[in-house]
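Figure S7 source data.
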Amino acid sequence: MNKTKSDYFVKARQIIAGGVNSPVRAWKAVGGKPVFVSHAKGSKIYDVSGKEYIDYVLSWGPMILGHAHPKVIASICDTAKKGTSFGAPTQAETQMAKLISEAIPSIKLLRMTSSGTEATMTAIRLARGFTGRNLIAKFDGCYHGHADSLLIKAGSGIATLGIPGSPGIPAELARLTLSLPYNDMDALRKAVKRYGSQLAAIIVEPVAGNMGVVPPRNGFLEKLRELSTKYGIVLIFDEVITGFRFTFGGYQNLIGVKPDLTCLGKIIGGGMPVGAVGGKREIMEKLAPTGDVYQAGTLSGNPLAMSAGLTTLNILKTKKISFSALDDKTNQLCRQIENLFTTKGIAVCINRVHSMFTIFFQQGPVYDLNTAQKSDTALFARFFHGMLKRGVWLAPSQYEAGFLSFAHTNRDVDRTIDACSKTLKIL
Ligand code: KE4
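Tokens for the predicted KE4 complex:
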């Protein structure tokens, strides 16, 4: 029987909350019923009816080599034959920690987790345990996973303490998080002047990807580093998206700003469940069992995730891989899309950092959450569906990042431009 996609979603919603295991997959931001996927290979993803799409979501970032890379699949299969989880140390975990530490020198000691959320949650607890302070600061529009202390909205004024970003988070806890405007140096200075000695940590996406792509302004991260050092605040770079996305290392390697702790995820797991937190030895040693800051995980450092991650990172480390070529391809795509919109007379602002990008449906510039939210999300939704119909799978939200992989070809770019040109005719 030829099931329609709505049948799959109807069935899923009967037994899975919202029909999905992560909210953004339900396509609430763009409307319509989500496409169900059957498989993926390289730069392509296929729905249950067999339709092919050029994939710019890449599972929200991890699939930088493209889907089902033969060496990654082989490593998972070979590893699985030897058992899938032991709950005991393995050499692969040591190899992973060594590889990450060599790639990102600020990471002297590391702890694996099974998600980015666990990594950032652990980093916050570590910073609080290390400093003995309770307050933390984040930035509006940055997402660090769904731990209570990080699902916080900005308070009414710039330097007022946070309010819960979701029901179920106690106001008392929310008040321990300050949420500041991204890229706003004055707000940062004022907040640190007022709360500096009480702040355990400042956590930031060094390149924001969760309000759409928003790069740091010149000097913003350097100022963060300077103020964190001055007030003894633990500076945490959330590199869950940016880790190994732009170079064989973190964004920190490119700008020469060293955080005290770094959170990783996505790419380091090669598509398997993964996260990691690492950084200064004196902080990381606070973690149980050497220290008394508790953290644990049944599947942390899981053999399959280590195998897929090590294979992925070792491929990224080879000279055959050219991150600059990936950047050029992404630039080529974005420039051609921009030209099409300009010719059509529709205002878009495309933010691109290396191989991640967002097409904001507005004049721009977009440099923080407030400016990002000026976008025409209804027009974005129409564009999303128009591109989907023409075989191009974009992120189903204006406030997400698009990604290219090393499997994306010039022909993929040409087909995407063609789909864009045809979509603009009906937009
Ligand atoms: P996970 O718990 O989803 O592995 O990682 C949380 C996380 C932490 N930090 C950053 C910068 C992140 O972007 C994420 C998760 N990213 C989202 C998409 N932007 C994952 C997609 C989803 O939530 O389904």
